[in-house]
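hiii, so i know i said id send this last week but things got crazy w the move. better late than never?? heres the sequnce for the chain we talked about at the cafe, plus the structure i predicted for it. fair warning i was half asleep when i ran it
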Amino acid sequence: MRERQERLTELFRRHADDIHAYATWRVGRQDAPDVVGEVFLAAWRSLDRIRSGEERGWLFGAARNVVLARRRHGAASAALGQRLVTLAVEESERDGLADDVARRDQVCRALDTLGERDREVLITATWFDLSPAEAARVLDISRPAYLVRLHRARNRFRSAYQQVTDAEGSHPSAVRNPLAA
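okay and structure toks below
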């Protein structure tokens, strides 16, 4: 029993912040702690089945399942764009704040034109820094299917972002393209 408690405690220490960030993105700040609690309760119940080294992917997959279950039961969720816009920006520490705000707005508007599947794969890939294998597990698809879906979502985002910036008449030097390396 003590080993189980120590393992769960270690999992919580290592991954709770990431799971909380994911939950905040999916259901908002108010409901995120409940999602984290449900995920780690599920982890406690399934601790013997979680393979060593695969914990992070398992936890993200569990978080996704909790979020989907909450949606099926009518839990309200804020739009992805709104969540991105509400991210805290340290004004005093940021250079080019106006450019950052303009770029964030453009990215949000481009993301808003995409379907939920595309947004989910893009955010899972970039925001949470999951490996392709972990992200595929979170989305409950194979790694090759994940890579294809990510490739297609990136292409659709690239096109949507270009349309947003073209519609604004943004000069390329005024706002840096977030897809540029």
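btw The mean pLDDT is 79. thought thatd interest u
miss u guys!!
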